[in-house]
Amino acid sequence: MNGSNFKTYLTSNLEVAEEEISSLLENCVTKIFKKGQFLLRKNEYCKHAFFVEEGLLRQYSINEKGKEHILSFAPENWFATDRESSVFNQPSVYYIQALEDSKVVMIDEDFIRLLSEKIPAFTDFNNRLLHNHIRHLQNRINLLLSAAAEDRYLQFIKMYPDLLLRVPQTMIASYLGITPETLSRVRKELAQKNFKT
Amino acid sequence: MKTRTVEIIASPREPHLVGDGFRVHNFIPSGYRMDMQRMNPFIMLDYNSTHNFPPADKPKGVGVHPHRGFETVTIAYKGKVQHHDSSGGGGVIGEGDVQWMTAASGVLHKEYHEEEWSKKGGDFQMVQLWVNLPKKDKMSAPKYQAIKYEDIKRYELEKNAGNIEVIAGEYKGIKGPASTFTPIHMLNAKLNKGGKAVFEFPAHYNTTLLVLEGSIVINGKEEAPTNHMALMANDGEKFEIEASDKAVVLVLSGEPINEPIAAHGPFVMNTREELMEAFNDFNNGKFGYLEE
Fold it and tell me: For the Pirin C-terminal domain, which residue ranges apply (chain B) (predicted)?
């Protein structure tokens, strides 16, 4: 496979030769998804973690009133998956969809097992990733419960510096748990504060 | 004086939509051998070949977006575009008009089919070009040049061959109304069938021809049909075009800006750090605010 970002990601985080990673990566498939295409739908079983080589994914749910709620965005070098489905073998409550034409590395359980067997440092690294993910989720819950709209927005642009240009504002508002009107007001107030002619 | 030869005749790529109002073929920078450095100072060229838009109550176009580090030049051949920007400016680009926007340190703008035009619909044909700015001018203040068709002077060719409209730079002593930061010639050659025109630019100026109507033969040899772009080599100064049938050709020639390019989305700077700063400034409202 040609997944070069994923290869760089692994070699820079694990002390392992590039040739070894290259041969291990032959057990991994890279797929192209067109804009709008689904990688996972509600009630399906998630069999992969998706690593984004190029493009952009979103993970979201739809409530009983038909409203979308965006759980996460995954641009280049990010992962998206549904752990409840993939690890605990439950039908998914989420959708994962490509927001741009995307190139995605499909990581399955066998590949994780193979990496754990062949690269001793992988298990520690994977644990650290998991802790980092939990930290991110904790921060996100805390922001959604306690932070003002502006703080949520400021955190968002720090974490996703280029998404404002790639994603419609309604989706960003959905991710932040605010209305599009509030997001627009926050951005207008920031501009009034920061724009110098 | 040496003859400047043809390097490539590029066919139009599959069109894509910019917003919902511009159906464009990108030539620069995605065309073969047409990357930003090769074409510098012309760092992006989207060509909306003639396309019939049906009547629409809600004007189609592109919503609010930023630019920094270059100029956008919109040349309207058919149809009308309305635009607004974060400094309160705005206007209509009508048929034959050229809008030259120096985004420089940064603007937010949006552009749509003009309201009345949109209600009727019709043929739409435009070129949007990004012109690079030298490092020293990338963070200068934004400005506009709204160039009306009436203000564009033309040179009448001999033997009823047609005429050359000069938007920027010069053709045989006729100067264009646009002011530029680096030397650029931007001309519309409107030739009658069989009409010939000769062009002379310094060999190191990057030079390209976009055939909007009709077809032409370059230097008596290579044919460039409608909607194709001819990239000229940097091997000489002088070349000749002849219209096989009534033709409109956009002629671009500019002195390359020999500085590094760091580009991402709507920002074209010199370093990665400057790009990150551009995203940061945009996210934090430093480009101002414009209602969607």
Answer: 187-288
Q: What pairs with residue A52 in β-bridges?
A: A104
Amino acid at B9: I
Domains belonging to chain B, first-starting first, are 6-254 (2.60.120.10)
Count of A-B CB contacts under 8 Å: 48
pLDDT tens digits along B214-273: 999 999 999 999 999 999 999 999 999 999 999 999 999 999 999 999 999 999 999 999
What's the rounded Cα separation, in Å, for the pair B6 and B164?
21
Helix (H) or strand (E) holding A83: helix A83-88
Calpha distance B224→A85 (Å, rounded): 57
A contacts of B265 (beta carbons < 8 Å) = 162, 165-166
Global pTM reads 0.90
- Report the gap between the CA of B130 and the closest CA in chain A (Å): 18
Q: Under a CB-based contact definition with an 8 Å cutoff, are residues B169 and B183 in contact?
A: yes
Q: How far is CA B13 from CA B8, B45, B224, in A?
A: 14, 12, 15
pLDDT tens readout for residues B78-136: 999 999 988 777 899 999 999 999 999 999 999 999 999 999 999 999 999 999 999 99
B65 is in an annotated binding site: yes
Min Cα distance A157 → chain B (Å) is 6
- DSSP single-letter state for residue B3: B
pLDDT in tens, B154-205: 999 999 999 999 999 999 999 999 999 999 999 999 999 999 999 999 999 9
